[in-house]
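User: I'm writing a tutorial on reading structure tokens. Could you give me a worked example: one chain, its sequence, then its tokens, then a sentence or two explaining what the tokens reveal?
Assistant: Sure. Here is the example chain.
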Amino acid sequence: MVKLTALIITYNEIIHIDGLIENLSFANEIIFVDSFSTDGTFEKLNKIEKVKVYQHEFENFAKQKNYALSLSSNDWVLFIDADERITNEYKNDIIKKINSHNNYVAYNSLFRYYFGKIPIKYSGFQTTKSYRLIRVSKCFYDESRTVHERLIVNGDSGLLKYRIIHYSFRNYEHYKEKMKLYAHLKAKKLHKEGKKVTFFKSKIKPIYRFFNHYIIRLGILDGMVGFYISKLNAYEVIERYRELDRLNKKSFSK
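And here are its predicted structure tokens:
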């Protein structure tokens, strides 16, 4: 049987640790890369014998994931977030895929998202997919992409049969903090590229983002949760260009 490593990057995820480790008990190796959590995540992980835990300063998702890949003892790895869970069917599909004799070196996964305990059926999430099962020897992350990282796949890729359950947004404020993090990472990249803030980007683009998620991507069918999601996605655009403006002014004043 081909061995599998589960990789998790964390920051302040102590509430998810016990459930996640139980969920990943089928993996041959479980590795956590913690970006200096302040809620006791690292200390809790250090007390669990069956996991390996490292601390590594977070710069962006691509670099953090490449660092995690470098720690794996096995060629096949499963990337999973602390607030995600997989079913027995999903586990069996993974085992089947990595032990099959085909040319695939990476597999995408679809997701079932939750806002608190409420499932998100639309709002643009219905077709979201991401590479989660990959071969270390054939794949790496493009470090020029700081948010929504892109996996470079040297070979064929496929799609896992089942969906990852993603308890991604605990509540409104938790989602807002995630959007703020993404916004600042994007702003930092735009600043390095010498981009400027324009009226269209700072005023019109947020309106379109809301319209896109709420109407075009059917967020309206998710009720109030769909409204919150659309609003916070528009907030991400506003915060991105607000931060870019701040970074540009700071550079100009030097």
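What the tokens reveal: Residues 176 and 232 are 6 Å apart (CA to CA). The chain has a mean pLDDT of 94.
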